[in-house]
Amino acid sequence: MNIVHVPVLKACYFLHNAKIYSRIKKTVYAILADPESRWRKPVDGGLSLLVIASVFFLIREVKQPLNGHFPQHFETFTVTVFIVEYLLRFWLHSSVHNTIIKQYEKAAQLNTPFRLRRAIQEVLKEKWRYITSPLSIIDLLAILPTYRPIRLLRIFMLFRLFKLFRYTRGINQFANILAEKRFELYILGIFFTFIVVSAATAIYLFEAQQPSSDIQSYFDAIYWALITLTTVGYGDIVPHSPEGRVVTIALIVSGIGVIAFATSIFVSAFSEKMQRLQHERIFQGISRLSDYTLICGYGRMGHTILEELSTSRQGVVIIDTDNTVIEKARQRGYLAITGDASNSHLLEQLNLAQKAKTVLCITENDINNVYITLTARSLSQDVHIISRANETASIKKLYLAGADHVVTPNQDMALVAAEYVGQPVAFEAIYSILSGQDELVIDAIKLFENSAFDGIELNAIDFKHHQLILFGVIQTETDSADEQYYFELTRSHFIFNPHDRFTLRGNDVMIVFGHQDNIAHFRKQARRLK
Amino acid sequence: MKENPLLLFGYSDACFHIAEQLKAKGWPLVIADNDLLRVKQAQKDGFSAIALDYTQDEALCQAGVGQHVDCIFCLFEHDSENVFLTISARALAPELKIVAITESQEAEHKLRIAGADHIINPYTMSGRRIAELMRKPEVVDVLDHTLYGRYEINMTQIEITEACTLSQKCLSDIDLKKDFNLILLGIVGAEREDSFIFSVQSTHHRLTPGDTLVIIGMPNAIELFKDYLNMPPSHVHTS
After folding, report:
1. Which of A259, A491, B26, B200 holds its CA 20 to 30 A away from the CA of A207?
2. Which CATH architecture group holds A290-411?
3. Are residues B10 and B83 in the same domain?
4. Nearest to B142 among A421, A468, A474 (CB)
5. pLDDT tens-digit profile of A487-526?
6. Residue B106 belongs to a domain
């Protein structure tokens, strides 16, 4: 091995393994380039302001010489920031040591001699790709106007404005839309050039020889043709001969055609893209959420649920196949997507496995609900799935598909109606407690190991003082066989109205009736450490 | 259990579920519908059903509205039918208990004006339930396994009468938990316009005839307590 290779490779591997180095690079990436990072808005906003301010100073300077040191210092500061930004992006673009290591390992694998020159060439090629990318050219040109002696460079000030491209998504998307209509724009360009050139040539031929004519050069002719074609018509250059007027008539007529063509291209491009843009915006909004509840099907039920939860509109994502419903949800301020929730691809895009906390399958169609449940479960084992069964027969299927809870509107209603008959007073009281419409509620209080109530007997707690009624206790371990009233739950059991000598344990859950404030206060006490 | 049958109007999906539930609880019930096909279907499903044109007051009277029936259910699929039935029945019998279902919030309001005592909106209800499931999963789990219909813990209401042992007593004097293993959730006071009084909040409330106790507990414990209430005063051992 060459004597130069060893230290170079060593350095490369050192960087490759250095945690601090990669952490720094990651942070810089997050600050400058990562579209998902929380730095994006402040950093882009700050840089945009800097651009606008610097352009403002440059414009003022044209007529009024700037007094004082401040503008000078500001310009220096701006350019320093731009240069640092440029260099950092240059550094971020590709990783030198990784490229060299890759080359080296490739050579080792193929058993060919490692050539440092080849590797460096590769590195340079990648960096060159950065330097020649449009955005980085703009960056570089934006730095130039600082060099005042050359006045022509002032025009590069415009590139500072172009820099805003980098920092605003809107402008970027505008450029993307145009790029997508490349073919149409190309045709339009050819058509446009053809008309301008032929009209300019015609008028030049007819009028350039006449001494009284406005058109003295071919450039004048082109300028005139453009002004006429675009229906701007300044009137500074007008045809004087009848032939010239005929050319003008033809040009004006075709000008209307060209404008109509151009407009139609832009309009169709934007209307096509608008929906997708909105879609993307929503996906971006979702990707910023740390976790969310996915609601599949936004009908009366979904509406009630959201009203009940009444948390901030953040943290809820709605999917429905009906566009009008989605529009309504958006108007109410929710993140809503038109789409099929049983589409695994869509759910994956929403990052269901990592981010969804709860999935509600509450469409009006049981077949859909089963399908969505199955899809969601196949993507994530942990997500909490609540499904709606409109038919009794679907309940079992939904559980099989992976639902954690199944809600059946008709049955629930029947249960409630049956309770009502015979004891309307008790019913109204309990119904209002259960539905949480009142301040009086039923709630669960979780205890923890070593918290204040761990190992304490119930008679040591003064429920009356707290103005609470204990309904019962949920325990996970089963050694209270002496309790007469206990009910098996899915993974634990519930002891109804336990007697005074009952001992609470660390992981118990107490179910109590009481006022919301009292419950909150009591919960705080229960959770204090011993 | 009462002998007077409940009248269920309109044999819809909802009606089927409610009828089943009521039947399981032992209530006598009759289903009434103006559509013969639906009446036949109801009979096929094992309920007693009659054909009845609910738009005619005489027909309603014949079925017992305003006489021996004290509770009807309006379970038609169209809100307009339910509202009409509610108004007709309310006009015939001011004391009648009317339960109506609807799927829209707008109709809820109209049914209330028409005079329905209780309005059930299955979607609102299930929506609330899902919201509860997300907020307090343990509570919903417990209630599903205890209080809701199919399980052993009951909630019930007991009216205090003149002769009752607890009449004129303070809430603080009663320890239902120790003596009966019951939970006294609260009282609906006779004097204060049917407002619900939470039991631990007003311990010095004196029970008067007409008050209604709201109680949660096992059926047999409730029966025991009812027996205790109706005992002649001399037999009561004050605890």
Report:
1. A259
2. 3-Layer(aba) Sandwich (3.40)
3. yes
4. A474
5. 777 778 888 888 777 888 888 888 888 888 888 888 888 8
6. yes
Contacts of residue B75, defined as CB under 8 A and 6 or more positions apart, other chains included, come to B8, B9, B10, B11, B12, B14, B15, B18, B82, B100, B101
CB distance B82 to B100 below 8 Å: yes
Which of A184, A187, A137, A192 shows the shortest CA–CA distance to A165?
Answer: A137
Residue in B14, B124, B157 nearest the CB of A410: B14
Collapse the DSSP code of B159 into the 3-class scheme (helix H, G, I; strand E, B; otherwise coil) and give the result.
strand
CB-based contact, A429 to chain B, within 8 Å? yes
**Contact (CB<8Å) A304/B124:** yes
Dump pLDDT digits (tens) for A159-190: 777 777 767 766 777 777 778 888 888 999 99
Q: Which residues, 6 or more positions from A91, have their beta carbon under 8 angstroms from its beta carbon?
A: A25, A28
Torsion B227-B230-B236-B239 (CA) sign: positive
Å from B168 to nearest chain A CA? 21
Contact between chains at B155 and A497 (C-beta distance less than 8 A): no
Q: Give the 3-state secondary structure percentages of chain B, helix then strand then coil, rounded to 5.
A: 40, 20, 40
Determine the Cα–Cα distance for residues B239 and B203; give it in Å rounded to an integer: 17
Nearest chain A residue to B103, by CA: A300
Residues B146 and B163 in one domain: no
For residues A112 and B221, what is the distance between their CA atoms, to the nearest angstrom?
A: 90
Question: In this structure, are B20 and B112 located in the same domain?
Answer: yes
**For a pLDDT cut of 90, what percent of chain B falls above it?**
6
- Specify whether B191 is located in the same domain as B107: no
Q: Would you kindly state where each structural domain of chain A is located, as residue ranges?
A: 5-167, 182-274, 290-411, 435-527
Which structure tokens are listed for B34? Answer: 């103006």
Tell me whether strands A440-446 and A509-515 are parallel, antiparallel or unpaired. antiparallel
| pTM, to two decimals | 0.64
Architecture of domain A182-274: Orthogonal Bundle (1.10)
Contact B21 A417 (CB under 8 A): yes
DSSP state of A445: E
Q: Please check whether residues B42 and B76 belong to one and the same domain.
A: yes
Task: Go through A397-410 and write b for each residue having 16 or more CB atoms within 10 A of its CB, e for each that does not.
Answer: bbeebbbbbbbbbb
Q: What is the CATH number of the domain that holds B166?
A: 3.30.70.1450
Length of chain B: 239
Write the pLDDT tens digit of every residue in B155-183: 788 888 777 777 777 777 777 777 778 88
- State the alpha helices, DSSP H only, in A358-408: 366-379, 394-401
Tokens of residue A524, six digits: 């705080």
Q: Decide if the complex's ipTM is over 0.90.
A: no
Q: How many domains does chain B have?
A: 3
Residues B192 and B162 in one domain: yes
Query: Computed from CA positions of residues B198, B203, B204, B205, in that sequence, does the dihedral angle turn out positive or negative?
Result: positive
What spatial distance separates the first Cα and last Cα of chain A, rounded to whole Å? 68
Q: Which of residues 473-492 of A touch B (CB under 8 A)?
A: 474, 485, 487-490
Could you tell me if B236 lies within 8 Å of chain A, comparing CB atoms? no
**Domain edge (last residue) among B120, B139, B173:** B120
Are B215 and A430 within 8 A, CB to CB? no
Same domain, B130 and B217: no
Q: How many angstroms separate the CA atoms of A433 and A426, rounded? A: 11
Q: Identify the bridge partners of residue B213 per DSSP, sorted by sequence position.
A: B158, B187
Domains A290-411 and A435-527 alike in fold: no
Residue B1: pLDDT band with limits 50, 70, 90: very low
User: Which residue segment(s) compose the domain that B184 sits in?
Assistant: 154-235
Cβ atoms within 10 A of the Cβ of A199, count?
Answer: 24
Residues 163-192 of B with CB under 8 A from A: 177-178, 181-183, 185-186, 188
Q: Both B106 and B162 in a single domain?
A: no
Q: What is the Cα–Cα distance from B23 to A33, expressed in whole angstroms?
A: 67
Residue A238, phi then psi, degrees to nearest 5: -130, 150
